[in-house]
Amino acid sequence: MRFINVISIRKSTIILLMFLASITLIYAQHPQQSAREEHAARSAPAPRSAPAQRSTAVVDRANHGTIRHVDTQVIQRPAVAQRVAPQPAAVQHAAPHPVAAEHVAAPAQRRNAIVHRDVDADVGRAQHWHSFVYGARHRDLRAGYIQMYVGGSPYYYDDGIYYQQLGDEYQEVYPPVGAGVAGLPDGAIALQVGDFVYYYAGGAFYVQQDGGFIIVAPPIGAMVPELPPGSVQIAVGGGVAYQFNGICYRPVFMNGVTQYMTFMS
Amino acid sequence: MKVINRTINLITHGLRPAFVAGALACLMAVSATAEDMTNNIVAKPAIDPHADAMLRRMSDYLAQMQYFSVNAEVWQDVQLESGQRVQAGRTIEMQVRRPNQFHAAVHSTRRNRELYYDGKAITLLNRAQNFYGTIPAPASLDEALDLAMERFGIAMPLEDIVVSDPYKSAMGKVISGIDIGPVTVLGVPCEHLAFSLGTVDWQIWIEQGARPVPRKIVITYKDEEDSPEYTAIFSNWDFQNKLSDFVFTFEAPTGAMKIDVTEIKSENQEQKSEGK
Fold this sequence. Notes:
heterodimer; A: alpha+beta; five-stranded antiparallel sheet; elongated; B: alpha+beta; outer membrane lipoprotein receptor (LolB), chain A; twelve-stranded mixed sheet; 13 strands; 32% helix; globular
């Protein structure tokens, strides 16, 4: 009997000690694990390529240069793009061939919101098409021009400027809707209007199609960072606006910088 | 022989509990040591106390100044439509009168604009095209900065040093910070501090000595393509000149045309609305 008691006491002691030890071990490991997780969460930077954050199409930082608002994600909400009837150029040729929406290839893949920030580099650099003057005549075209037909009428194209032959000279004309080019004019500016991506240069709005780019009717409600060259100031509803090839551009401050919204007067 | 047997018996029976207890005590000691080590890892702060203290000192210094003006040269990485990355530069001349007046003139080769805040309204002036636009604004500078950014997408220049509590504003989401050490910025001895928000890193160079003002700030956007950077280098800090009202009061230049300031809702704003 005494032997059994001794055994029981010994076993109880061992079990009690093991229990205490296991609690201690568990206690030591648990905070260790959670603390490490917390430490890692606080100190480890997020992966460089955080696809979830980059895949948002129309959301982007409003601007750079602020820590306070580093996470302020601005959603661009321009008016929904409306395709308007193409405005015939004021030259003697057949009416430009309208590009029906269904004929335009699927819009270019959405990219991160196109924010034209308050910097010089992205817009305003002198391009060939900045020299466009409607009606200006030239005896010769620069080397490398392209001849094309739009709606059955012959045109000549040189880096964002379109010409038609007038006697022995070439006259600068408005960009004809339906004209297709293999590459965008230098300095064309990407714009996101509704679900579409347009490329804007010299008052023309291009969309990507069949490996090239085609001029479409200007979308109403588009915000462009600069006026078409040669646009004319007009008064609309007591405010100021500018007109180019039948489309009006109203200046507004957007994201803190001046942009111009297309509308029909 | 009996002695040997008794000794073996004592070891195998009599000392077993003591042996087990000793082993467990060792285990407990080891686990306690592991716990201590763990505590040491946790206790080590992610933000270097020295870096934290230096930033707080700069913040307190700026916050207590009722007037100040400063110039900054800003360089910002921009990706052209061609995909090429370039830096765009501009200069900023800024004046602040706490608690609710602000003016900044931003100049670059092709742009020339100003922002006014007089405690009642924010006015943007595009001097190059002679346009201006005005939006009503709250009575405090902090609220005005938030409204400008969150509802109109307007980043008031250098707002991180303009807010009433720069430390609190900047450190809210910081997860780590270190003191890189002393370095000079344009010949001025500074302390170089580096902080991280995880996806965005920022660095600040604070002037050493009695006037702990920022001399340079770099923000790196690691979550954007090619990790573009924004750099501001400060000069001409002035805390002596008591800035007059006219500095902050907008008067339309001759021939200036008023245009709309487009409101742009932000996720932040929407989240705030949803949270109400």
